[in-house]
Amino acid sequence: MKTIDIYEELKSNPYPGRGIIIGKSADGKNAVTAYFIMGRSINSRNRVFTQTSDGIKTEAFDPTLLTDPHLIIYSPVRVLGNKTIVTNGDQTDTIYELMDKQQTFEQALRTREFEDDAPNYTPRISGIMHIEEDTYNYAMSILKSASGNPDSCERFTYSYTNPINGEGRFIHTYMGDGDPLPSFEGEPKKISVPNDINEFSNALWNSLNEDNKVSLFVRYIDLKTKKYETVIINKNKKQ
User: For domain 3-234, is the CATH number 3.40.50.2000?
Assistant: First the structure.
């Protein structure tokens, strides 16, 4: 698979929607993940990421403008032992709760489908990072309607064992803007992942469409110590 320039990819797509990146830093020292959200409506744009004890949650920036929390208020990132879960919806909690009961990533997602936001039927994208003493692997999933037909759910899971240094995968919800919004197609795209979290965070944020971007989360997890560094960037900021 050809390695794409993630920054040019984002600049060329005014509305990739929500996106997940997972991979490994170029020096091989860190497991890396990123998650961003975008919005076209006032309700979707009225959000921020706030840090929790193990990850992040979305919150209304101005509670008075929140009209419908359905599908926009959730925990995108949660940590379960040596596993980090990253998703674009409340399936984060589904994965957390069922894996805590010894079910697998795929088994947990078998209980879910794409979002019920007709006519878009937004895909549910999910990722899980698993860091053991000497090993690191991850998987990514997408649940999508069959070419916009809500009667059929297509399920794809992609697993990456012992990821190569400096490589990552990128999956997002929409191929671009539209009405209805066209769902992501194909397998997760291969990208390059730098060593520096601030370089990566700033470059990703600056590549997202200025009008539509809302929030960005980036985390680097030291594969030896398991300690992590997090960057959160919100477009909405208190004055």
Answer: no
